[in-house]
Amino acid sequence: MLKKLKEKFVEIDGDLRLEERSNEIYGVTAVFETPDAVIEAAKKVADSGYEKWDVNTPFPIHGMDDAMKLKPTKLGYATFTFGTIGALSALAMIAYMSGFDYKNIIGGKPFFALPPSIPITFELTILLAALFTIIFTLVVFNKLPKMNHPLMDTDYMRRVSSEAFGIFISAEDKKFNPDEVIGMLKSLGSSSVNLVYKFATDEDKIKTPIFKPAFLGILAGTAVLTAVLTYIILNYAIYTVPFDWMTNQPKLNPQKMSTLFADGFGMRTPVEGTVARGFKPYESYGKPDSLIRIISNPMPFTKEVFELGKKKYDTYCSPCHGNYGKADSRLNGQFPNPPTLHSDKIRNWKDANIYHVIVNGQNIMPSYAKQINENERWAIVHYIRALQRSQNALDSDIPVDGNKK
Amino acid sequence: MSVHKEMTLVTERTSFQELDNVVFKPTESKPTIKWYISMGISLFALSLGVVSLGYTFYYGIGMWGNNNPVGWGFDIINFVFWIGIGHAGTLISAILYLFRQKWRTGIARFAEAMTIFAVMTAGIFPLIHVGRPWLAGYLFPYPNQHNVWVNFNSPLLWDVFAVSTYFLVSFLFWGLGLIPDIANLRERTTSGIKKFFYTILSFGWRNSNRHWQHYEKAYLILAGLSTPLVLSVHTIVSFDFAVSVLPGWHTTIFPPYFVAGAVFSGFGMVATVLIILRKVFDLEHIITKGHLDKMAKILLATGTMVGYAYGMEFFMAWYSGNTFEQFVFINRAFGPYSWSYWIMVACNVGFPQLFWFKKVRNSIPMMMAIVILVNVGMWFERFVIIVTSLHRDFLPASWGMYAPTMYDIGIFIGSFGMFFTLVLLFVRVMPSISLTELKAVLPGSQPSHHHHE
Ligand code: HEC
Fold first, then answer.
1. Which of A318, A320, A393, B189 is the most exposed place for a label (fewest CB within 10 A)?
2. How far out from the chain centre does Cα A334 lie?
């Protein structure tokens, strides 16, 4: 078992080495021993009109950019642009979120103001500027990552990564002639001049390390694992013991059972016979339908009243009676279905009858006298009337010329 | 420069290679017994923290000592402490870079790594402080099912942005610096698997001058960006206190006072770790006494600044004529927590004054003793600021005392364990000295004369 693993390891290890080389020349490399020598040589190469060439040094050499006749880098523009974008988007974000979309009163402060926005604006400016400076350096200007460059894994690269300085002239240069280039580099004082060959496989076809199936597999596996774990943690784990200690605290919430009270309810209702502020005793309380005093609905037919009625209906009545009073309750199955509110019976009822059911309850429907005050009850009745009218609309309700419009 | 004279290894041209060998040695050889011992201690401390945290997660933060009136205890003290430690790294890597301080090259990489680990350690505390860290996503403004956005007026939110930006930017800066060194490792190694990872991590860097050109500029820009960033981070941390209306917190001196303290404590920690590290990894000739001498001077300067801030706080309490403010400061110095106040003053202002003497700066045991005291003192500074201001506020009826529980202490020890575990792992797998930067400033590594035609 262990031996097999080891063999596998060696196999992978061998697999991961860089590719075989062909006989085709990629370019010429020359090693120089001192920074003075390489900068002088670089000047000469630049003067001789080569274009596809490079200097490789283990650290940046002062004055090399001039020697190579490189144009100054434009990196600063990228930093500036993205810093500005960072600042503006931070301000826009804060203005939208707290000044417009979610106006929340906090200590009477303005919803959006500049001073408290400065810290975050500043941080995001720096963040975007720094992020894009690096992205531009590596990806845009330096065209990295490039993981299968023919210069890699050569003696030349080994030396110029550590202690020597080198010049490389590419075979793709228009002026390139191997003998001439070798002669020139030798005459410039190089201690070792070598040829670099292209990879045996076509450069585009070489799988760079990050595209090797094993690596991609590991990445994909990690991603899936993280996603699954996150899902499980956020959707299940935190609702199980013990992580539910914030959700299930030793206190009574609405709808909870309690052994303390005789009726077993956690929620308490006001003491019988007391009248809360804003409520009036209802004279027909507890009386059968036939004995109700018929009073007419005192609420006016205004938009506000209908909106109040809708709000209260949706809150208190819709869970059982359904949003449109069609008895399609959300509690379906957990509570006996109530009858529809569009029956002839209810449509022919007086407003006071519906009012009576709200205050009094009816059979298994509980009384809502304690939750809903007088005006709200009447508003609900208006709203039920509106529902009845709209759900039982007749063809004649549609204006004749309305079709054309 | 005196520093370089001591680097006898690097006087000759061929020595670049030897330098590589020394710096890469930990990454290329089996760990030494010294390393195993250090790692064992760190892991033990870490496991104490993990167990204490486990208890906290299981039973909730009621396990901690915080309670009314001291709602911020060890959690926030440790947060501010670790965040402050991080600041030295950025100071060394960015501010000293802009000031062209060549001596920084020897310690910059390591200090940057320390920044990252310190911020990671610090980041744990606000998360566990919220009680249910798994819901910490709500700290960020993202479109959620509640249709609620975060409160942009709150310094705590600014903190979220400041600390995460600080972590990301420090991480990128550090990563950028590592690229050429990892490329060097890639070329050195003979193992295919190592080469594979180094190739990916180095982005295929090949030391091309056409790349160096942009790279150097990027480094400069990032240093320029990190400098105001690092100042902003502790400023914003101080806003967590200063923006409230509590006597002892509500002062305008807080931002500069916190930044000076952060640099002070950070250098204290860098020095502590470097003194150990150069012993454990035999880097005495690269991280020289010259470095320690310079750090001691910075400690002296920042320690004195912090001392000035302590004095100024008292002056302002008196000059403001605000009795509550005056009470808080008298209570700090002479109240039930006065012992912590005087530990703070002695460690932060008193002992560093010994650094005026060159003898002290050059003696490793003395230096070690003082920098450890600095760490202690700076931890107590945060303790004093947080606990003494909270425990007695306007209303004597609500006064109270604060004492940590063993879980608080366990998590605190665990934070050190985590930090040192990360440090030790880092020095094993990555070059802990920036070779590129170090080589570039050695004598003879640059052309002897510049021709500017
Ligand atoms: C807990 C579920 C529930 C809620 C909430 C509820 N009801 Fe009822 N409602 C019922 C049930 C069940 C009946 C049928 C009772 C019966 O058997 O007579 C009913 C009956 C009625 C009736 C008489 C229907 C008929 O044909 O006899 C009216 C009117 C009525 N509810 C109006 C309302 C209004 C208005 C509200 C809101 C304030 C409301 N209900 C809230 C369950 C509910």
1. A393
2. 37
Cβ of B184 and A58 within 8 Å?
A: yes
Q: Give the distance between the most distant pair of CA atoms in chain A.
A: 122
**Are B255 and B238 spatial neighbours (Cβ–Cβ below 8 Å)?**
yes
DSSP code of A341?
T
Convert the pLDDT of each residue in A352-369 to its tens digit.
999 999 998 888 898 898
* 3-state SS string for chain B: CHHHHCCHHHCCCCHHHHHHHHHHHHHHCCCCHHHHHHHHHHHHHHHHHHHHHHHHHHHCHHHCCCECCECCCHHHHHHHHHHHHHHHHHHHHHHHHHCCCHHHHHHHHHHHHHHHHHHHHHHHHHHHHCCCHHHHHHHCCCCCCCCCCCCCCCHHHHHHHHHHHHHHHHHHHHHHHHHHHHHHHHHHCCCHHHHHHHHHHCCCCCCEHHHHHHHHHHHHHHHHHHHHHHHHHHHHHHHHHHCCCCCCCCCCCHHHHHHHHHHHHHHHHHHHHHHHHHHHCCCCCCCCHHHHHHHHHHHHHHHHHHHHHHHHHHHHHHHHCCHHHHHHHHHHHHCCCHHHHHHHHHHHHHHHHHHHCHHHHHCHHHHHHHHHHHHHHHHHHHHHHHHHHHHCCCCHHHCCCCCCCHHHHHHHHHHHHHHHHHHHHHHHHCCCCCHHHHHHHCCCCCCCCCCCC
| CB nearest to B440's CB, from A15, A60, A117 | A60
* Of B428, B382, B410, B419, residue with least CA distance to B120: B419
Domain B2-22+71-405+424-441, CATH homologous superfamily name and number: Formate dehydrogenase/DMSO reductase domain (1.20.1630.10)
The domain A289-397 belongs to what CATH superfamily? Cytochrome c-like domain (1.10.760.10)
d(CA A333, CA A321): 13
Q: Are A168 and A29 in contact (CB under 8 A)?
A: yes
The set of protein residues with a Cβ atom below 6 angstroms from ligand 1 is A 316-317, 319-321, 335-336, 338-339, 341, 343, 345-346, 354, 357-358, 362-365, 368, 372, 380
User: ipTM of this model?
Assistant: 0.92
Domain ranges of chain A: 19-204, 289-397
CA torsion B324-B325-B326-B330 (nearest 10°) is 100
CB B200 to CB A145 under 8 A? Answer: yes
The answer to whether the CB of B122 falls within 8 A of the CB of B20 is no
Give just the sign of the alpha carbon dihedral A373, A374, A375, A379.
Answer: positive
**8 Å CB contact between B66 and B146:** no
Task: Cis check for the bond before A300: say yes or no (omega within 30 of 0).
Answer: no
Please name which of A203, A177, A182, A209 lies closest in space to residue A21, comparing C-alpha atoms. Answer: A203
The ranges assigned to domains in chain B are: 2-22+71-405+424-441
Protein residue closest via CA to atom 42 of ligand 1: A365
pLDDT in tens, A175-223: 899 899 999 999 998 989 999 998 887 766 777 777 778 788 999 999 9
All residues of chain B having their beta carbon less than 8 Å from the beta carbon of residue A66 are: 452-453
**Alpha carbon separation from A318 to A269, A327, B166 (Å, rounded):** 22, 9, 51
Range B209-222 average pLDDT: 94
Cβ atoms < 10 Å from Cβ of B356: 11
SS3 assignment, position A278? coil
Q: How far is CA B84 from CA A53, B231, B276, B416, in A?
A: 47, 11, 21, 14
pLDDT by residue (tens digit) across B344-359? 999 999 999 999 999 9
Nearest CA to ligand 1 atom 38: A317
Output b/e per residue, A207-226; b: 16+ Cβ within 10 A. Answer: eebeeeeebeeeeeeeeeee
Q: What is the pTM of this model?
A: 0.81
